[in-house]
Amino acid sequence: MACRISGVIGVLGLLAASSSAAQEMPNPQAMQLQVQQIAQQRPREAEAAARAFLHVISMQRGEGSEESSLALLEQLKASEPDAYWGEVAQLTVQFDVVQNLARHDSVRAGLVTQMFGLEGMARTLQRAYRSANETQRDGIRSQLEKVIAAHFDYETQLRLLEIKDIERRLVDVRAETQRRRDKRAEFIKFAVDDIIRDAIRPR
Question: What is the mean pLDDT of residues 19-26?
């Protein structure tokens, strides 16, 4: 789907900036290929994973939106099977991203879940926009603006976490650099002693 929100790729780009948890993630191209494969192969387990992720999203929001999300998914299955499997594939891969992330960083996993939920809303609104009349399109556009604004705010929260991580690491690197400066002579002596011991060690 040609949408401003790029789903897995966009969120992984944010995570890859400095999060150590992101190092466990596959690259975005591999994940996009996985989405395409699921959409083509249509495995039943993907449907279960997509529904499970909708449940996680609804729990994260603290809203009772799971039933409506599932109903929309069922409507899509009946009316547009190809679009349905594209949505299932996207949700399945996103669920895998969140599960991997949650093992290392529950805070980021929560933010990413919210972002993925908003992306699902954007895809639903995009599909509705295609068949809407001009009056309806104005309302859908207004809804999309709210969704994208919320998504932007979660992106900002992720970036602020990354800034804090970078600042913490910078403090650690500075402290280690100062420690090495303070013990310069000691480090040099140890290194030279080690080289000499190795030189006179029997072969």
Answer: 54
State pLDDT tens for residues 58-70: 887 655 566 788 8
CB 53 within 8 A of CB 91: yes
What ranges do the domains of the chain cover?
A: 8-160
> Residue 23: what pLDDT?
52
| Whole-number percent of the chain with pLDDT over 90 | 68
What is the rounded distance in angstroms from the CA atom of residue 58 to the CA atom of residue 121? 12
Among 38, 45, 52, 35, which Cα is nearest to 1's?
35
Find the length of the chain. Answer: 203
Dist. CA 128–CA 5, nearest whole Å: 16
d(CA 177, CA 68) in angstroms, rounded, equals 56
Cα atoms found within 13 Å of the Cα of residue 26, Cβ hemisphere only = 15
